[in-house]
């Protein structure tokens, strides 16, 4: 031991500095996911698996072993793991997830109840339903009420009903039977256009109704004004679609605008499902290549005509949706400009209706969280992850006219269907997804 005080202090400072350097190095390696391996006597790289779910506190089973509960973070050695998230009373969620050294892999499971609580939103007989542009309101026609004046066109508000009834009658059926009309919401949801046609599908009369209050029975026929109404609503839809479209890569803008039908953006505008009208190949995923980690589900970048696909803007990934119906008789064309000479035909007006109502053109629609799709088929109503995995049946009952919509908060599905009623009697029924 040296007796020189300066040398002693220098030696102490050196060891302190060495300790800080080693400690910092170890802390950095630990933060990166490296852990001591006693067998090899070295630091082994690990990856972080971040598992969340709704509802929370669900069991996490990794490679058939109960490991933890959500929400949690796990350091795992690099490899591919089969992750199953389950909770009593809910359908399980399963996915194969690759864990890479020094990277975070996320798993966000939305679990749906095995048995859903149901409650009726309407009574007697409902026909002719139509959801507005953001699925916060549903227009429907009530029939067979004991009070004749109660029959007519209503607007059901899914949210914001704390101070009054959620069902607002906006017109009676005494003069016109609105169950025979085609109902089209305006882009701003302030009006509903009711179209009446003959057997040749020619428009015989049209009425523009306020969706906020009771309308007079002496409404003026707006058939002659239809070209102007179409022009105005096309302009509003173009102003809605163009900013969203501009967020996507150039090749997707061209594809969605000119070579696809049935284009529907997710509520958060970060995803879109569509059906190309030609066979083509998407460019390499440059967005995904620039990210450290993306969804592990294999992509489909070789597009086939009339096959539905979904594109994720954040990761640049593209997935096939093999369960989607082939294009129906009505195909939606994305409105990005006003027609030079708008035609007051039923076909042009149905294009306005189809801009947000995917039920007219396909068996798919968006769930409110933008992470799942609502799928209707011979099995009833199902939920499926946006990458076409985890198809989960919600109910085996069939919705009339394919009508099913989710509440904005995702807590319930609303179907026009028949449950424990007389044959051919349908009402709006709420299915609890909490």
Automatic annotation (TrEMBL):
Could you tell me which InterPro entries the record lists for this protein? PEGA
Please list the residue ranges annotated as the PEGA domain. 47-111
Q: Which residues cross the membrane?
A: 12-31
Q: Which domain of life is it from?
A: Bacteria
Please give the SUPFAM superfamilies that the UniProt record associates with this protein.
DPP6 N-terminal domain-like
Keyword vocabulary terms for this entry:
Membrane, Transmembrane, Transmembrane helix
What protein name does the entry list? PEGA domain-containing protein
């Amino acid at each position: 031991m040296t007796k020189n005080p300066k040398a002693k202090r220098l030696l102490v400072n050196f060891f302190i500095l060495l300790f800080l350097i080693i400690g910092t190095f170890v802390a950095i390696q630990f933060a990166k996911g490296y852990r001591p391996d006693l067998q090899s006597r070295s630091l082994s790289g690990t990856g972080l698996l971040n598992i969340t779910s709704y509802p929370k506190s669900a069991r996490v089973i990794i490679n058939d072993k109960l490991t933890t509960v959500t929400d949690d973070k796990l350091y795992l050695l690099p490899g591919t793991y089969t992750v199953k998230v389950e909770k009593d009373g809910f359908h399980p969620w399963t996915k194969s997830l690759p864990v890479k050294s020094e990277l975070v892999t996320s798993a966000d499971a939305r679990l749906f109840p095995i048995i859903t609580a149901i409650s009726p939103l309407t009574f007697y007989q409902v026909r002719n339903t139509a959801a507005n542009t953001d699925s916060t309101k549903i227009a429907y026609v009530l029939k067979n009420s004991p009070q004749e004046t109660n029959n007519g066109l209503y607007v059901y508000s899914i949210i914001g009903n704390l101070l009054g009834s959620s069902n607002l009658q906006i017109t009676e059926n005494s003069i016109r039977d609105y169950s025979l009309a085609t109902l089209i919401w305006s882009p701003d949801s302030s009006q509903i256009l009711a179209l009446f046609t003959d057997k040749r599908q020619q428009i015989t009369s049209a009425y523009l109704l306020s969706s906020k209050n009771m309308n007079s029975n002496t409404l003026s026929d707006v058939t002659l004004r239809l070209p102007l109404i179409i022009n105005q609503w096309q302009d509003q839809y173009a102003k809605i679609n163009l900013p969203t479209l501009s967020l996507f890569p150039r090749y997707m803008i061209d594809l969605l605008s000119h070579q696809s039908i049935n284009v529907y953006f997710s509520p958060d505008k970060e995803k879109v499902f569509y059906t190309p009208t030609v066979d083509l190949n998407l460019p390499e995923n440059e967005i995904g290549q620039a990210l450290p980690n993306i969804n592990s589900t294999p992509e489909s970048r070789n597009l086939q005509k009339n096959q539905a696909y979904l594109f994720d803007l954040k990761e640049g990934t593209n997935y096939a949706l093999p369960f989607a119906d082939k294009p129906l008789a009505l195909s939606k064309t994305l409105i990005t400009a006003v027609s030079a000479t708008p035609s007051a035909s039923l076909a042009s007006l149905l294009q306005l209706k189809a801009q947000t109502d995917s039920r007219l053109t396909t068996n798919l629609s968006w769930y409110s969280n933008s992470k799942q799709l609502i799928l209707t088929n011979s099995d009833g109503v199902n939920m499926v992850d946006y990458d076409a995995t985890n198809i989960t049946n919600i109910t085996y009952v069939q919705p009339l006219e394919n009508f099913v919509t989710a509440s904005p908060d995702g807590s319930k599905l609303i179907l026009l269907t028949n449950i424990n009623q007389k044959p051919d009697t349908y009402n709006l029924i709420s299915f609890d997804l909490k």
